[in-house]
Specification:
Length: about 290
């Protein structure tokens, strides 16, 4: 019973970081309506940036994390402004932005591998602080995952429901052509929302780097988790993306009780297959999601 309780709590903590990834991708996808996966490259570089700042430059972990979030926003802005804006304007079908962002992700992963190899890099000096409640034991990073996930969810819900920028972003997600006709600066708002989504993703990169460490291929892994969270939770639903990530974390962790570790991914893909086959809009998705984003 103690083991089950610890696994469930660990699953919730892991699901919280998956929820962060899902929410970051939902911001990007719901506004652009395109599979821009360049955030995977931002994830890699932000993770390695934290490792360099903490272990090489000797900067305090908290300050380094704040610096990395700024780096994530600026890096995403540069990617959007210099490269992906042109891809969006020149490529007709959405597959163009997907292929262009994938090429960028692969390039950023290759550059990271060339300079630092495939070794796991942990951006933390010293042991993690441990907290114990009865039979449950958690590290400080696991607790922070839950705190950040809840805070991000509430903050973004407020921003996109109450602020003018959020209302404009929702209008663009609903109908980009109509939004442009009424005078909204579509590209500017898309860039802002994408950069905000990448900053959310960078938060997870900081948490993971300070906990278990990062490596070049983690960018693709983050993309897959974010994609599965959005599909499982519901296309067009920001809340669904968060809950989808939470479900994935719990399932992956608790599945260890009955199945070998290698079976965890198979179970997740089986769940995803069933969702796509019988409810393509996801658990919390909406049929006409463009009108509700």
């Amino acid at each position: 019973m103690d083991l089950i309780l610890n696994l469930v709590v660990d699953g919730i903590c892991e699901g919280a970081r998956y929820a962060i990834l899902g929410m970051g991708f939902a911001l990007i996808f719901n506004t652009q309506r395109m599979f821009d996966i360049s955030f995977g490259g931002v994830y890699i570089w932000c993770g390695f940036a934290l490792w360099i700042l903490v272990t090489q430059a000797g900067i305090n972990l908290t300050l380094a994390g704040i610096i990395v979030l700024a780096i994530g926003y600026l890096l995403s802005y540069a990617i959007q402004k210099i490269y992906l804006t042109k891809v969006r304007s020149r490529s007709g079908p959405p597959v163009g932005i997907f292929l262009g962002s994938m090429a960028l992700l692969m390039a950023m992963e290759a550059i990271t591998s060339i300079f630092w190899g495939g070794t796991i890099r942990v951006g933390r000096i010293g042991e993690a602080a441990l907290f114990k409640w009865g039979v449950v034991q958690l590290s400080d990073i696991k607790i922070l995952k839950v705190i950040f996930a809840i805070s991000i969810f509430l903050l973004i819900q407020y921003v996109f429901m109450r602020s003018p920028m959020g209302v404009n972003a929702r209008a663009i997600a609903t109908n980009q052509l109509l939004a442009k006709i009424v005078g909204l600066q579509n590209e500017k708002i898309i860039i802002f929302t994408t950069c905000l989504g990448c900053t959310v993703v960078a938060i997870d990169a900081v948490l993971v780097c300070a906990d278990t460490g990062v490596y070049p291929a983690i960018g693709f892994q983050s993309v897959m988790i974010a994609f599965m969270s959005v599909i499982l939770g519901g296309i067009g639903s920001f809340t669904g993306a968060a809950i989808g990530g939470l479900i994935i974390g719990v399932v992956r962790t608790v599945a260890v009780l009955e199945f070998p570790t290698l079976w965890q991914e198979l179970i997740l893909f089986l769940i995803l297959f069933l969702i796509i086959a019988f409810r393509p809009i996801g658990i919390w998705g909406i049929k006409d999601w463009k009108s509700e984003v």
